[in-house]
Specification:
The protein has 493 residues and is mostly helical. It has 20 helices and no strands. Helix 6 packs antiparallel against helix 7. This is Membrane protein involved in the export of O-antigen and teichoic acid.
Length: 493
Amino acid sequence: MKALLKRLFSDSFAFAFVNIGNKLLAFVLFPIFIKYLSVNEYADWGITNTMMLVISYFVILGSDAALAFYYHDVKTNEERKGYLTATILLSCLAGIIFILAFFLLREPLSSVIYQAGTKNQWVLFTALVATMFSVINQLLLGYLRLERRKWVFVIFSILNMAGSSLVSIYFVMVLHQGLQGIFYGQLLGQGVVMVGLLLLLYRHFTVHVRMPYLKDLLQYGVPLLPTLMAFWVINTTSRLFVYYMISPKSAAIFDAASRVASYIVLLTASFQLAWRPFSMSIKDREDAPQLFRMLAKGVLIVGSLVVMGFSFIAEPMMKWLAGEQKPEYFEAYRYMWALSFSTVLNALHLIIGVGLFFHKKTPIVSRVFMQAAGIYLLGSVTLIPLFGLWAVCMMNILVYLLINLFLYRENQKIYPVDFRFRSMFIYIAMFIGLMSGITCLQIAKVDHLWLYYLLGLFALVVAVFASGLVSPKRLLQLRKRVQVQHNRESRLQ
């Protein structure tokens, strides 16, 4: 088990380079774009990204998850190459359909979506073509990850983000292309990386595409589409609700909070990238359930500690990033902890429902996410007019708690794992209470906040044990085992 954990953390550490680079770029881009874009243009950027995300799901059609499954399920390299070729072809065909449709309908679509109307008609089209290149890159990078060519994956992933970001900065700062310039940069940067990846992997493609491969990809991937749509509803429609139900200014503030709060992706996305191939490779081991239980607790505890720690510096960081010329963004710090903690809960569901993926029970996962999406839509429409951005934060946490609960019940039927779920929920309730109190103190501008921060950290450590999530007795037993193992290794040396 020690070797397995070492491998998982090694892969996660390598993939973290990608996320560190992406997040550093996000911090660089944030102050640049809010300086050169108006508040409405910044809000339109968030709306456009929201639209492109849902379209990317229909272009991919769940084939990335299907490719990961069949890569480990088949026996020969030729079969793996066949599935890769079929995956790229399937996404290209779907992407071409969307590109043609957006070209023909760009004016009426832009007039409905944006307050600026047809002024943004070419923004939609350019963003869509850039999204198509991004999808191809995502699939090819995923194949590199499955091949365990992790450092090649890291290099091309950073090039993919850095190249498009640098070109976008040039179009926005130097050429003053505004919102359109962001997507010109993405189009050029991601296009170059796509060509490089295709040249790198051209030997992994086959000349002919077998229909059984396409059928397998669709049968495995399409049932995941409702899950992805539900995921889109939960994670991105909040921008639409805020944009249309409150104001573009509030949508810009929420988008700023979401972008800075995405620092947590440095922790969760690195783990998620390594999780799928790792979990699939150990699914038949007898000690796998024990390992999954430990990882679930670890993700929750480490994630909550990171979220609380970052909340201590969230306000000064937002003021530094936005600058004195954009004070309207300052209040975004209040919502960061809730948005980042919901990301932790999202990562947790992959472990909680791990058996459903092993046994190809993806329709169950889809049903759970669709139920949660319905609750999210109903709650958002009802609460956002009353509580504003806080309603979005509350609903994000609530739906991911429900998703984990529903998946836990379904997973236990086919792949029982003792996650100590009751203790996890008690710990989460304690954490939310602590963070709510800290946020109230920050808004009230009380003196000597650092003392309350230390008290909050101490209370969170106490909550780990008081909730029953970690037993002091078992912790001492584990420490003794580690010490015994260390002594044995010392004697052998």
